[in-house]
Amino acid sequence: MKEITYVQAIAEALAEELERDEKVFCIGEDIQTGTFGATAGLVKKFGPDRIMDTPISETAIAGAAVGSAMTGYRPVADFMFADFMYIAFDEILCKAAKWRFMHEGTQQIPVVFMAAMGGYLGLGAEHSQSPVSYYMHTPGIKVVVPSTPYDAKGLMKSAIRDNNAVVYLYHKALLGSTGEIPEEEYLVPLGQADIKREGKDVTLVATGMQVQFALNIAEQMKDKVSIEIIDPRSLEPLDIDTIVKSVEKTGRAVVVDEDTSRCGAACEISMQIVEKAFDYLDAPVQRVAAKNYPIPPGAMEKFVLPQPQDIIDAVEAVMG
Amino acid sequence: MKLEKDQLVKFYSLMVRTRKLDNLMIEALNSGRMAGFYHAGPGEEAVGIGACTFNMRDDDYLYPHHRSHAIGFTLARGISPKGWVCRHFDKNPGEVEGPTAEERGIFGISGTIGGGFPLSLGWGITAKKNGKNQAVLSFFGDGASGRGTLHESMNMAAIWKLPIVWICENNQFGQFMPIKDAFAREDIADIAAGYNMPSAVVDGQDVLAVHEAVEVAVQKARAGDGPSLIECKTYRMRGHAEGVPDVDHVDPRSEKDKEAWRKRDPIVLFKENLIKQRILTAEEVSKIDKEADDEVAELDKYQQECPVMVPSDASILDVFLYAE
Amino acid sequence: MKQTVYLMAINEALEEEIKRDEKVFIIGENVQQGTFGVTSGLVQKFGTERVMDTPLAETAVAGAAIGAAMAGFRPVADMMFADFIYIAGDEIMLKAAKWHFMHGGKVNVPVVIMAAMGGGMKIGAEHSMCPEALIMHTPGLKLAVPSTPYDAKGLLKTAIRDNNPVIFFYNKGLLGLPGEIPEEEYLIPFGQADIKREGSDVTVVAISRMVHMALEVAEKLKDKVSVEVVDPRTLEPLDIDTIVESVKKTGRVVIVDEDNRRCGVTAEISAQIFETAFDYLDAPVQRVAAADMPIAAGFLEDYVLPQPKDIEDAIERVMA
Hints:
The structure holds three protein chains of three kinds.
Chain A: E1 2-5, H1 6-20, E2 24-28, H2 42-46, E3 51-53, H3 58-70, E4 74-81, H4 89-102, E5 112-117, H5 132-137, E6 142-144, H6 149-161, E7 166-171, E8 178-181, E9 194-197, E10 202-206, H7 209-220, E11 227-231, E12 234-236, H8 240-250, E13 253-260, H9 265-277, E14 286-290, H10 308-319
Parallel strand pairs in A: 2-3, 2-4, 4-5, 5-7, 6-7, 10-11, 10-13, 13-14
Antiparallel strand pairs in A: 1-8, 6-12, 9-11
Chain B: H1 5-30, H2 45-52, E1 61-63, H3 71-76, H4 81-88, H5 116-130, E2 136-141, H6 148-159, E3 164-170, E4 199-203, H7 207-222, E5 228-233, E6 247-248, E7 251-252, H8 255-262, H9 266-276, H10 282-305, H11 316-321
Parallel strand pairs in B: 1-2, 2-3, 3-5, 4-5
Antiparallel strand pairs in B: 6-7
Chain C: E1 2-5, H1 6-20, E2 24-28, H2 42-46, E3 51-53, H3 58-70, E4 74-81, H4 89-102, E5 112-117, H5 132-136, E6 142-144, H6 149-161, E7 166-171, E8 178-181, E9 194-197, E10 202-206, H7 209-220, E11 227-231, E12 234-236, H8 240-250, E13 253-260, H9 265-277, E14 286-290, H10 301-304, H11 308-319
Parallel strand pairs in C: 2-3, 2-4, 4-5, 5-7, 6-7, 10-11, 10-13, 13-14
Antiparallel strand pairs in C: 1-8, 6-12, 9-11
């Protein structure tokens, strides 16, 4: 095992896949330097033909990646901020997500759309979102949200090898967080949740940055309540079985997500728990998510984004 | 229209104040007094100030850009910089005298590059419908020339003869991307031909040249003769944002190029010109510089005395979310 | 009262509002002719300056309408198919939705983005969507989804007078639906659900075209079960109170919506019912929505979109 940061883990996954498969290439704005460091250093090794800097053209970056994926390549399109992917919604949510289906499975679209999501840095409404729900809602596209360096690397490698469109959203506030990964190659399959901490009283489902909050809270509350933390790691496919199994054991569930609450990931996961484990529930499922507002900048951010105290309150609510 | 002496002095004073406010923000961010983003723009003052100061009416519309967080535009439109300074320090300026940005037709800056084109198109439609000969000045950087919104918006503005002056502040760099690698032609202004729209390429370091080119375009717009495109060649002296690598793709940017452009600093060029033409003496110039220093120090002191902008509860969010 | 059809009710609302307020204008592709007839005939009455045909340019149509709204007009942008709003994701979901908020409430954006949504015409994945969740998930946007000529006219007039961005999705499958509307002017306030049929055993919350499917099923089952059909009419604001009142009476709920299920409208309304009326529920809420796949073209559409049989089955499950 070796110690590595979250952002280095992503860069390492990209480097290994670029090395392994000549069909893999990266395309995006300023990726040769890398705004968040996830693509930094790759151009020195692989050259500008495989690490392609583009003009500011999100629509065309997404569309070009989809096009080259249809025709045999495995592009990784980088959008810098997840907020910028809205500019390419037609390309991502209609073309990448639907064209295989529309053409009766005759096409393969092995593209990865990567971007940095998340708040807690005070960057305001157009640079802080975690827009997972749009992708989770749109059939035909997979969504990956790693919370640790181990997951970040293993999921990126799987995303690149997947023959479908995958949205890979890494969290800006986790870039420098550290963790251990194996020296040798490994993959983390999509659709396999990870139990980040075992417990028996409450099942706490969390992704991305919220996993860190959850782990701190579980430790902090450990004398009062035993919390089991489940990180789905990918929201589509969603490993609902692992979540349901945990809820069958604990009888109580809290679902935490950083995206907006209404029609969000926490809403969907809560509903699936209710639908699949209704008889096991000792209390209504609690969802903790961003409130239904745009994300304000600076100090006001905390009024909208989920805070550790919100998670504690929800745990106490299900414990009654 | 020939500019009067006091107008020339105003150009100089606005550019100096813009530079010094820019420096305040760079210092504050780098010393940790301020949090967040700052996209400085020293050396690009002549474009916004030359274009907006005397060519715009109070009821015109303006889409500025993110460089120097539009402080040059703010000053040129006669808006108090107090709100601008306080906002950067998360301070509440209270009621500030003078027009608000909205009253001067500035509705914000898009967090996504190229988001300003369609909005400006909308203001152009408004201006035409209002029938009061209003004009829209819509600025964009060279980087935004990559966006598809540019085509859609310029095309419609042209076919409908909307009173929009598109102004490209070509500072030669997107974040890490040199425009020579991001646009197929040397001059972005060349795209105007495709929309049957007049265009001009001007020296963005020359505040008078910018003023004059925009003056012609604004007059055309007000006369109902449709949009124009003006490209102002300038140069980005610092990184895209403070703390972000200042690179050309991955390599450090050319110091030689920077040095050459530093010699063409728009404030220095204009100052020398004013002194040479005996419009101002060296002493008078120093006095203006000193006044600007004092004003910026005063603004910094003002923001320090203002309360922190944190509402006691989240109810303000509902006010922000929906209008009555 | 007078007899009209759904599309004419929309047309009438536009005509009345254009006549009433000189700040109202329509902009969009082919609005002078009117692809679905809702804007037809208006250019002859109001001229090309107020009924503006544009090139094919959805991004700029939406953005221009939003810009004009900021600057004092009340534009109605017609996007033709609801599927085309994806092309203007940045403009609608970041600019229209957030700019009032981002500028401390100082910039008003009184724009209506209207488009035809819905399936049933078997025209495939990119012309049949009901992208309601996309809008409902995005804070700052209001969403009206009329199911009858009466609602269509009254809601559109309210939408145009609202000082916020409103997405008005009319349903392609209802264009020719007849119904009565008053001779005199009327408005329908947002956030006011309508009980389309009273009943006592089960609450069916249905949206847009699904209201009619629910009514059909209610009629069919009337000897066995008394179905109450509640139509929220606007999804944001959502009149959860009327829904919960009905649930308190019946104890059983089925939610029917034509958008995809995952992170969809049915998930959100179900979650809100669980959160506010858990103790009144005699059975888990059932959601009926489009399957989580793109909408297939041709006869395969029936396998994706909700069918009367799905509603019937769901009612049987909650009654069991």
